[in-house]
Amino acid sequence: MKSFLSSLFGKKGVGSQPAHTGTSDFQAQNVLERALMAAPVDPAARPAFVQLVLKSELYVATPEAPPAARDRMLERDEMVNFFTVAGPDGTPLPALFTSEARVAEVFGGGTGYMRFNGATLLEMVAADGAVLNPGLDYGVHWSAADLATMLGRPVRRVIDKDTNVLLGSPAAPPDALIRDLAALFREDGRIEQAWLALAHWPTGGPAWYLDVRSNVDPEEVNAVLGEVIGRSDLEGLSLDIVINPPGGADGIGIQIKPAETL
After folding, report:
1. Exposed/middle/buried for 248, CB within 10 Å: 0-12, 13-18, 19+?
2. Which helix (H) or strand (E) holds 117?
3. N or C: the chain end with fewer CB closer than 10 Å?
4. Main-chain dihedrals φ then ψ at residue 45, nearest 5 degrees
5. CB-based burial of residue 30 (10 Å sphere; 0-12 exposed, 13-18 middle, 19+ buried)?
6. Which CATH architecture has domain 166-257?
């Protein structure tokens, strides 16, 4: 999975490293856009940008413009047609925008649009991923796994029986993530043991690897962990989770519960 940090892009194209030449006409129109402009150059600003995306209003372009602007509630199971753009592999992805003006910049004046709460909209497009501000100087390509992480959902990875994954203690521990997990596990008796390691997969790059020992249903554990995943700083990596019954050999990496090694 591409991390959020490598998924930020400048005008050179989706997936390229963020860049700002100083000649851009992009001027921030709201708090979200100011955070978006800060994220490529300041790693410390990136977690705040992600949280702001979830709380802010985002826009999508629609094939038809209503006769007048109005607010309305979508009906359950109502279909909404969004304009799409080509993702990094050419797959059509929903085009999202940080303001009404950005819709017009990309698709032209008079284009229809709809406005959503950020978290609500990302839930709607989470299965496929999305592109924020396509073609503009500041934007993001989010894969489905990126959105799962942002929304507090564990990233599911299908492992073939012949797949070898290298696990080890991270040289630079993710202190904020460790603190958040330790605080959660300390108060939750359903989790008996847990270790956090850095995993290196044959494909897809590094990821955090959380080894949890619990007797409860894995979906119940995933729901608990989602609270941390959605708000904690993963430092640009995904979080892979394996859940097994208690006992057996100790896990690899930093022991979070019991927390003797912290």
Report:
1. exposed
2. strand 112-117
3. C
4. -85, -10
5. middle
6. 2-Layer Sandwich (3.30)
Q: Which sign does the torsion angle of CA 90, 46, 55, 181 carry? A: positive
Per-residue pLDDT of the chain (262 residues; tens, 9 = 90+): 222 222 333 332 233 233 333 446 789 999 999 999 998 888 778 888 988 999 999 999 988 755 555 555 555 555 677 899 998 888 999 999 999 999 999 999 888 888 999 999 998 898 889 999 999 999 999 988 788 878 877 666 665 556 677 889 988 899 988 999 999 888 888 999 999 999 887 766 788 889 999 998 887 887 778 767 767 777 777 788 888 898 888 999 999 998 754 4
Give the pTM: 0.62
Q: How many CB atoms neighbour CB 42 within 10 A?
A: 12
CA angle 231, 237, 210 (to 5 degrees): 75
On whether the CB atoms of residues 233 and 47 are closer than 8 A, the answer is: yes
Q: What is the domain partition of the chain in residue ranges? A: 4-150, 166-257
Q: Two tokens at 165?
A: 């994954």
Q: What does the DSSP 8-state code read for residue 43?
A: G
What is the C-alpha separation between 51 and 59, in angstroms, rounded? 17
Contact indicator for 36, 24 with CB cutoff of 8 Å: no
Contact 204, 166 (CB under 8 A): no
236 CB-contact burial (10 Å; exposed 0-12 / middle 13-18 / buried 19+): middle
Tokens (6 digits) for 114: 């709809």
**Bridge partners, residue 199, by sequence:** 167, 207
